[in-house]
Design goal:
about 750 residues, alpha+beta, six-stranded antiparallel sheet, 43 strands
Length: about 750
Amino acid sequence: MRKALAFFLVTAILSVSASAQTPAPTQQQNQQGDEDVVRITTQLIQVDAVVTDKNDQIIPDLKLSDFSLYENGRRQELQFIEYVGADSTPRVEGSINVAGRTVEPEVARNLSARDLRRVFAFVVDDLTIPFEDMTTVRSLLTDFVDKQMAEGDLVGIVRVIGGVGILQQFTSDKQLLRRAIAELTPRSHPFSVFNNFENADRLDRPPSALSSGGGEVGSSSESANVAGLNLPAPGNAMDSDASLDGYTRGARALTALSVTGSVVDSMKLLPGRKNLVLMSGGLPVFESTQSQVSVNGSPISIQETRALTINVNYLVNQLSDRASRAGVVINTLDVRGLKASGGVTSFTAPGNEATSGLMTSTVDTSNNFGRVTNMAEFDNMKLDTLTGHQGLETLADATGGISVINTNNFREGLNRVVGRSSYYLLAYKPSEPFDNKFHKLQIKVDRPGAKVYTRLGYVATADTPSSKSLTREQAIIKAAMSPLAKRDVDVSGAFQYRFIPENRAAIDVDLRIDAKTLDFKQGPDGKYHTTLDIVGFVLNRLGKSDVGFSETINVTLTSDEHKRAMDNGFGYTGHVELPAGGYQLRVAVRESDTGKLGTLSKYLEVPDLSKKRLNMSSVFLHAVDPAGGAKAQPVALTALRQISRTQDLRYSAIVYNAKLDKGKPQVNSELVISRGDKIIFRQSGQAVDLRGADASQVIKLGQIVISKLSPGRYVLTLNITDQLADKKSQTLTRSIDFNVME
């Protein structure tokens, strides 16, 4: 593969969040790999269901004979059922904490289909969420990522109108998710319920963050097309806070449904049952329009509450069908909580008088004998609350999800969603003809107190799998775009960086390729041969890139080299230089003869050193011959990071922007060597005083004897503390793994 292919890749992939894929619950489906997942055909229909007892706990022991399924009122013959338990997780060897933080080695080896456990998508409807409630959203999502997201989970966070490129994608990278959560700050939009920033000072974000933009989902510089409507672009030119126009509420609902539908479609290729959580301030399904009528010859205004002329209910049904075909359950959560449904004790209580509430009227008895002169002026905010709850409940019920409204206990509601990750997959041959009409489904369970959560039905049109063959370039793009790693070629990698002049970072992309997953051919010369295409590219915040590397490698190994490669793999290092900012590095490795692919991705933030905040490079490892003394030349451990027990391990890192007291830094270090969940070695309280290129740079350089370590994989964690820095940001931690060999 030549340089041209790399640039073809990086220019073709404009937005990571535009596509998503995942694995299936059954062994047969898992073996499908990238093939289209077909859930509805004229021969077989698959439907998932969650069954709980009277205490809302999952019932895991039901049999085929316990189920009965009806389509349009007619009982169907079930072919099989399968119980998919959320507890069937990949084995985790354990974890350790250093300086209060879980050690997470800076090594990318992303989820593959066989590793996948659960999938969650969070759609944040920032058109309807009050600005002050964004803190609740961030808190909920942070709690989920830190405490509930487990090994094998794939998670995506998408905003309705304020999203940014690489932050909106399905990933198992917690660092990327935490950055996406931090970006959940208010955005102004003409259709927003709350366009008033007067309370922005109560938010825990600086005012400058409120206007940060770029790459917004569902918007462009001119207009956005939602469900066939050209809606005005985001901006401050229009304020719809007090608008009585039902079109505005309809536009909000359409925009939220459109973005939710796009996320649902992106999840279709992820096998199994997936959870989508729409976090909203209500989904109005009614409009309120003004009409002029005449009373005694004088025009007055009345409000009509009627179904939206743009049929939102129709769109909800269509979205429900798309969710069924994609295996997605839509859950809804009103983040306004009890504020959206204030209660009163009597009709005369404040906020519930005859002249307030949903309808107000003005009565002039002096001249009109008690006739009403201004009839039925509806409070649109309260109308939005009533119809907004109805919309959220309707959408959740249609797909077998949970609707969390009228409560401030959001975590309990989210726990219910997470707790329903175990489900039954049922399959049957439909007796009803496919007529392009909606077919209602009903599932009953022969168990006292059991409650079934499933879909209302589907539109009787068969899914058609794609039979299009892919070119080499298309296959690489598809694999690189997927949130699930391809493991036909097993590849892992570490991204190490250091800072260079002009506030840029030099980044080494160290790859390890498992030779056992390659198809070597032994030639007449007795050597082993294969050819690999290695493509790497870097996506910026907007999901665009013109930076990358590409190379075709003709691998030729002697018999001894082939044996070592089979035991330990072999490495490759690419290199890029980047300015300050957030990026995602994506790499694809393709074996030319077999077409087998391996991919990985990693989110990386290059700090801005000009802001004078404490920062640190990656940890760099070297092997040193202990017999060589001071003149021994260190050998860099790059992709494979393998070191013999007969060598010493040297480690180094550069600390930037250290605070100075009388021209001297006060930086201490802690070194931890761990294996699995056990700490093998700890060294604390070491001063870091070796000066770097300028007074604010200090270098940590150390060397340890590893002769007593048994062969295996270890993690080195370096903890740096600047005693003079602000306590909230005085500690930095870096981790890297290495392999000890005989």
